[in-house]
């Protein structure tokens, strides 16, 4: 999706940004770039949690309002340079997430750090789960018991993962494998819930 024209600028802190008139692509922004932009805008919510929030809202309704999501994340002065920088990256995140959730090739992926230590990546997964649960509530899911069976069971697992305490990380190799399995479970589950809540319209039959 293209919104107006792309404009690129640079601050006195050497951070390159894209303004509100940016090109909104189907590609997620760089995780570290968004983390830094959020820090400059005094946002203390982790990027993974923000993405989970976005996903939770979108799986309930693909017409979820971007501005409602942004209002939960970004409350600084709209004219502030760093707020504008963060807003542009967040809008890219929202557009890319919506596109990925509806990708027929199932290209959806969780927005998580790649190179951090195992414990930090596990924390990011929990942040994502907490954000997702909150996103469901914001989108109107007040009682998970009313969700379709598969979505209900998966969403309840998301809540449990987000609320889990410390994990045993004594065996790095086993822990890496377990984390990868959790991430894949969450990825596939989000796609499943998106489909259950908003089934794709069947193509018209040709007679």
From TrEMBL:
Gene3D superfamilies assigned: YgfB uncharacterised protein family UPF0149, PF03695
Gene Ontology cellular component terms for the protein in this record: cytosol
Family: Belongs to the UPF0149 family.
Protein name listed in UniProt: UPF0149 family protein
Source organism of this protein record: Candidatus Thiothrix singaporensis
